[in-house]
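Me: I'm a chemist; would you kindly supply a protein sequence with its structure tokens?

Assistant:
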Amino acid sequence: MISFGTTLKDLIESYNIEILEELIDRITISQNSSDLRIMPDGTFEYKGVKVLYYIAKAFYTKKIGDAPSSLNKVHLVWCRTLEEQKARGTFAQYSVTNRKNGTYHYEFNDGVVEHQKLLVCQNCLQQFYHDRHKPIDYEEFFNKD
């Protein structure tokens, strides 16, 4: 019998329930995590789920009319930009997500947190689609083997 003082965490542990996340909204993980894999096509998988990389924080305050082009980009594949970030030692600031609608958990320096539209890195588009200007179809991308 379940008591009303039981937390969800206690229930999960006591009944040995495995939680399968349908949506990874934002997880910051170590680049050395064994749960993260770079696939042969350059895409990323986290615990067997295809994910995207992005920096979830802006380095300035939210302004009315901020265009997605002025914000951080989303990465589909291990591209030249990510390689440069790793070489600089700034790779740890990236998070992963499997959101398919083009908007992502995003935080500005003034504390404003929202789901923000972000554009895809042009290096990723060039590498994955061989076209820097191809609009991404997230459903197609996530379902492509």
Summary: Residues 68 and 118 are 5 Å apart (CA to CA). The longest helix spans residues 80-88. The radius of gyration is 17 Å. Residues 15-22 have pLDDT under 50 and may be disordered.
